[in-house]
Write a structure and sequence with these properties.
Layout lengths: L1 E3 L2 H13 L4 E6 L5 H13 L2 E6 L9 H6 L4 H11 L3 E3 L3 H4 L2 H5 L13 H5 L3 H16 L3 E5 L3 H16 L7 E5 L19 H22 L5 H13 L4 E10 L12 E9 L2 E8 L2
Parallel strand pairs: 1-4, 2-3, 2-5, 3-4, 5-6
Antiparallel strand pairs: 7-8, 8-9
The chain binds pantoate (PAF).
């Protein structure tokens, strides 16, 4: 496995792979890798000749400087995990390598067709602009056949699908296929997240209330006459009743449009909860 830190070397490596007729699978990450990331990398290794994993804490998608500073980083441990899985290249650039000073400070704009106006997009203005900025650059640099993303960041996945569909009209990303992969949970139900590293053992125990409530809500949704609004409220009340948890939003929306829905069919519930100072997200599909 080779660790690459410059765009130029990455493009040279990619050109050599393309020349040899090899297919490329890309797994974009911000590092602090866990079993959720590992599941994406295993799949990318199995389905492509070459697997490239990017490890880059992208500053332009953080609208909170403290959150950026506290984001866990451990490239040595990440590299060890990736080597064990069989990834071929790790791309770990510095922010200065990735962006010019102007790009770092100006707002990248993209037409999200409203997908960025709800939930995470509403709470974290500019967040998805930064995500699309970095992901489109990674696609450009690595020219992947397939790119893998976790469903835990469901809104991000929907936005990346939208970006590729729009851009492929112009042929920008060729026949790139976006592969969404299921959430990986601990046996306890807690969705794996790099941010879990910031939870104390007691907070981790408390955080279990999030997934427990989401799974419980599948039963609530099946109760006679249960409405979407009632279930939404019941989830918020149940999580807020747990000492140490505070819901930022819980929305049950259509899985494709991310717009509010009044039916459980093709619906997904997306939640953001503060567990102490740590902001956690999770989601559950109703049907
Ligand atoms: O999901 C993430 O880890 C990041 O948002 C991504 C897709 C790697 C872009 O920085």
């Amino acid at each position: 496995m080779q660790i690459i830190t410059t765009k130029e070397s990455l493009q040279q490596a990619v050109a050599a792979c393309k020349q040899a007729g090899q297919t490329i699978g890309l797994v974009p990450t911000m590092g602090a890798l866990h079993a959720g990331h590992a599941s994406l990398v295993h799949r990318a290794v199995a389905e492509n000749d070459i697997c490239i994993v990017s490890v880059f804490v992208n500053p332009t998608q953080f609208n909170n400087k403290e959150d950026l500073a506290k984001y866990p980083r451990n490239i040595e441990r990440d590299a060890e995990l990736l080597r064990g899985i069989g990834a071929h290249f790790v791309f770990a650039p510095t922010p200065e390598e990735m962006y010019t000073a102007e790009e770092m400070n100006s707002t990248f704009s993209f037409d999200f067709n409203g997908l960025d106006q709800v939930m995470e997009g509403k709470m974290r203005p500019g967040h998805f602009n930064g995500v699309v900025q970095v992901v489109s650059r990674l696609f450009y640099l690595t020219q992947p056949d397939k790119a893998y993303f976790g469903e835990k960041d469901y809104q991000q996945l929907a936005i990346i699908h939208h970006m590729v569909e729009r851009s492929s009209l112009a042929g920008t990303f060729g026949s790139l296929q976006i592969v969404g992969c299921p959430i990986v949970r601990e046996d306890s139900g807690l969705a794996l997240s790099s941010r879990n590293e910031r939870l104390s053992p007691a907070e981790k125990e408390t955080a279990l209330g999030i997934s427990r409530t989401l799974f419980e809500s599948l039963k609530w949704a099946k109760e006679a006459d249960a409405t979407v609004k009632e279930v939404e409220q019941r989830v918020v009340d149940a999580i807020n009743a747990i000492d140490g948890l505070e819901v930022e939003y819980y929305e049950i929306v259509d899985q494709s449009t991310l717009l509010p829905t009044d039916t459980f069919s093709h619906a997904i519930g997306c939640v953001t909860v503060y567990c102490g100072p740590v902001r956690l997200i999770d989601n559950i599909k109703y049907a």
